[in-house]
Amino acid sequence: MKEKIISKASELFLKLGFKSVTMDDIAGEMCISKKTIYKYFCNKEVLIEESTTLVHRQVHEIIDTIVAKNHNAIHENFEIREMFCEMFKNNIDSSPIYQLKKHYPEIYHKVMTHEIEQCSQWFRENIEKGIRENLYRTDLNIDVYVKFYYTLIFHINETTISDKESQQLELEALEYHTRAMSTPLGIIELEKQLKKIIN
Asked: Is the pLDDT of residue 190 over 80?
């Protein structure tokens, strides 16, 4: 039952917002009593923390699945971006990370500390892969580019209220990041991926 509550809460939080969803809403959606929820979670904050942990685990499982397909590094980044757009397409017109930072800053900081660590590792592996494939330049300072990119992406999510605007800015950031690192071969692949989005 605990896992079912976390799953339903995650869905509602992403769709309607962390602030607006109440324990009553979750109980009503699941046709259970609020008392049942409180049996597992002493308050809403604990449920939000469990829910965000679940969502981040799901996100990283999907990223691992995409990486396992062994696309080239640039294609991989664009497919992961597409996955994010698909995953969050039914939520309210407000970035979940923006909401979390605004209304539940302590949970936000806890989640982000872990998230930055995981994303940094993934960004690093992607850059190393792109260098091996001759899509990214060999003279890159990988540590600097990893830091540039996650600072850019997390800043967009933290400060952009509209989820639609956030997704557009993330695409611009991905293009900017890729162009900065690419060899001529990488630019060809980047243009190919951008053309697929336009079409």
From this structure: yes
pTM given for the model:
0.82
Kindly state whether residue 36 falls inside one of the protein's structural domains.
Answer: no
Per-residue pLDDT at 194 exceeds 90 = yes
Q: The domain containing residue 121 runs over which residues? A: 45-198
- Structurally, how many domains does the chain consist of? 1
In one letter, which amino acid is 187?
Answer: I
For 20-38, what is each residue's pLDDT tens digit?
889 999 999 999 999 999 9
Please report whether residue 160 resides in a domain: yes
Mean residue pLDDT across the chain:
88
Inter-residue contact 15 to 37 (CB < 8 Å):
no
